[in-house]
Structure to design on (689 residues):
């Protein structure tokens, strides 16, 4: 998998060298370089993950004040699914729809910047990244204002009849999906741009010369060659979108809650950490399964 | 091969401008069906642009391109019965050799792809390479895949854009022979763009020498070499000694020329102009040297000079001879085995048969044009054969 690249620490021993000490040092150097990152990951990823796994198996009848007993409560998982399956389904469907919209918007954008923008290339790239200069929360709040019932957008849509007189944008699934699409679009566009930028325009000319119409050329040459970027981009888009809860919280209503919102409330308001932990683990497992299936299918290992 | 109609490629008054720059300037050209046609010129002369316009990758600013009876000027590339072997080969890196070659067939929904591809891979001597990726092939093999990928479509015209440019000398020679063999075998019109004069001469039956967006001369390689039309051609195709003179009109079957207080005569049939400023041209291998004072063969014309440089290259000895007015002439003396080497500093007479000289127009004020730096031996071998 291209995203979780492990460091292949291959010790290089100088053949026939009698300086054993130096060779030793050279062999240990890669591990030494690995150490800070590994320590960081261990402290802030491995330990909490184990802790989270343990929490998901606690006796749910405990409380934050009284503490929880480890009872290997595997039934927490079916219980969590029974409690939150609508939100789980919603998370994946919202994220999937947002990803499709993201591709529809992002692919032409990345293609245009990479192949057609000429000297405007860098400026356009900055424009893609520019929203990241403000915080995620502020951006989403801005959308809340734009989509609000008294805002000019709703007013305009009502005037032209696209929206009924009491129709609204805020607190609808559409608003949540739009928010997800907007917030994660740069993560899709940038890897896609990187792979389209490398695309040799002469290959497109060659395809045209060999009787491929522009549409055929796209599906037979451009798309397969940009597949690594597309796979990386959709993963970077889809994974955080599934787990996101801010868009649902700010732009949606109680009927648009995603699994992230349930996890959030389990830990912070309903005081049911075992359920939140179980849902987190479930989410991780499902995402991993999807990612493996996806990467396998699109055969990126071969392309990358 | 697929279409019975005559498929001469006719380019008529085609001009291509990129902004201020005119790449191709009012070009008119006919390539007969089945010809091996070379467009020869230095980089930037417009030869590749011409090729790309035939392929449909550039659109002419003005003018018309016809293939047989069909106007293809504004057709999209994929609508033209024309295929290209690109300079970079442009093989699809995500497809194996088989699928690269099959690409055009599949786009046109042809049947029996496998048989055709295998046959074509055999023709370019790559049978059994079908499963390889382009990146796993050598330059020469990639070149042949590119050729097979274009040829398999039986285009009416095959365009070759410097297809051998990336290969080393030995492989290039081999591929020249190969290409010529395949062209004879399949009988498709080849239009070959190259800056390599030797490549153009050995492969093509017709060569067009291009310069600054125009064709300077068009003809069989030997015609162009023996009787160039302009000073540019005389120097681009092989080497020439061009002496600045003034032509004084025809007398009998000769044109009289005065240069550096000497009088020369050139057959009228080998004169591009009869009066005014001219270049008197003689190829280095058409010049012979004798010691000063020795007899010059009857009917030959001569200039006196001093040998300033001599280099023995095996098949010949290349001399530089400085004339009385300071110009250095190049002289290639064939190694027949009996001629003595002339030492640097020897006083000599360089002589030639007037039937081998030629007369070209010269812009007033232009001086002698020679090739004072003896060129690399491969140029010499090419022109000598």
């Amino acid at each position: 998998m291209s995203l979780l690249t492990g460091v292949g620490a291959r010790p290089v021993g100088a053949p026939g060298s009698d300086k054993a000490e130096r060779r030793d040092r050279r062999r240990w150097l890669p591990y030494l370089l690995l150490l800070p990152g590994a320590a960081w990951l261990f402290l802030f990823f491995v330990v909490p993950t184990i802790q989270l796994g343990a929490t998901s198996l606690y006796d749910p009848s405990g409380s934050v004040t009284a503490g929880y007993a480890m009872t290997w409560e595997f039934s927490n998982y079916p219980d969590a699914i029974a409690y939150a399956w609508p939100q789980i389904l919603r998370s994946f469907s919202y994220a999937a729809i947002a990803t499709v919209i993201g591709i529809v918007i992002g692919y032409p954008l990345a293609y245009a910047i990479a192949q057609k923008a000429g000297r405007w290339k860098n400026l356009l790239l900055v424009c893609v990244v520019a929203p990241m200069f403000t915080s995620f929360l502020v951006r989403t709040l801005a959308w809340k204002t734009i989509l609000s019932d008294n805002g000019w957008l709703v007013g305009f849509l009502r005037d032209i009849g696209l929206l009924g007189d009491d129709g609204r944008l805020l607190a609808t699934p559409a608003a949540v999906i739009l928010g997800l699409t907007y917030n994660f679009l740069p993560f899709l566009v940038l890897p896609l741009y990187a792979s389209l930028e490398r695309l040799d325009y002469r290959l497109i000319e060659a395809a045209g010369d060999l009787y491929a119409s522009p549409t055929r050329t796209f599906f037979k040459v451009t798309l397969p060659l940009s597949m690594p970027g597309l796979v990386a981009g959709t993963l970077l888009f889809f994974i955080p979108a599934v787990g996101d809860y801010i868009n649902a919280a700010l732009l949606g209503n109680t009927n648009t809650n995603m699994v992230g919102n349930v996890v959030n409330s389990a830990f912070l308001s309903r005081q049911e950490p075992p359920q939140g932990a179980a849902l987190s683990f479930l989410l991780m497992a499902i995402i991993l399964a999807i990612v493996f299936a996806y990467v396998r299918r699109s055969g990126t290992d071969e392309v990358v | 091969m697929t279409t019975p109609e005559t498929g001469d490629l006719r380019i008529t008054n085609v001009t291509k401008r990129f902004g201020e720059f005119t790449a191709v300037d009012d070009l008119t050209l006919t390539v007969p069906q089945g010809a091996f046609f070379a467009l020869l010129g230095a980089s930037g002369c417009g030869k590749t642009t011409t090729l790309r316009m035939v392929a449909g990758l550039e659109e002419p600013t003005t003018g018309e391109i016809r293939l047989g009876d069909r106007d293809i000027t504004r057709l999209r590339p994929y609508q033209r019965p024309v295929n290209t072997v690109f300079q970079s080969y442009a093989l699809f890196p995500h497809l194996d050799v088989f699928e690269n070659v099959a690409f055009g067939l599949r786009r046109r929904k042809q049947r029996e792809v496998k048989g055709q591809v295998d046959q074509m891979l055999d023709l370019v001597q790559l049978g059994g390479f079908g499963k390889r990726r382009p990146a796993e092939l050598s330059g020469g093999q990639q070149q042949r895949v590119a050729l097979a990928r274009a040829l398999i479509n039986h285009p009416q015209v095959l365009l070759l854009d410097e297809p051998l440019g990336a290969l080393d000398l030995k492989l290039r020679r081999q591929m020249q022979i190969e290409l010529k063999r395949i062209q004879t075998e399949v009988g498709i019109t080849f239009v070959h763009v190259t800056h390599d004069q030797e490549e153009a001469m050995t492969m093509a039956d017709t060569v067009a020498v291009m310069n600054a967006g125009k064709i300077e001369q068009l003809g069989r390689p030997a015609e162009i070499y023996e009787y160039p039309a302009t000073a540019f051609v005389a120097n681009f195709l092989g080497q020439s000694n061009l002496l600045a003179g003034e032509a004084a009109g025809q007398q009998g079957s000769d044109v009289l020329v005065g240069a550096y207080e000497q009088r020369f005569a050139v057959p009228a049939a080998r004169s591009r102009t009869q009066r005014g400023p001219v270049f008197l041209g003689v190829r280095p291998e058409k010049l012979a040297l004798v010691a000063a004072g020795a007899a010059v063969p009857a009917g030959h014309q001569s200039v006196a000079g001093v040998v300033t440089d001599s280099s023995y290259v095996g098949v010949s000895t290349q001399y530089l001879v400085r004339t009385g007015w300071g110009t250095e002439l190049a002289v290639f003396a064939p190694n027949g085995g009996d001629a003595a080497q002339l030492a640097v500093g020897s006083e000599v007479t360089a002589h030639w048969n007037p039937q081998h000289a030629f007369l070209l127009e010269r812009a007033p004020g232009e001086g002698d044009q020679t090739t004072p730096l003896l060129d690399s031996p491969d140029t010499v071998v090419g022109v000598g054969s």
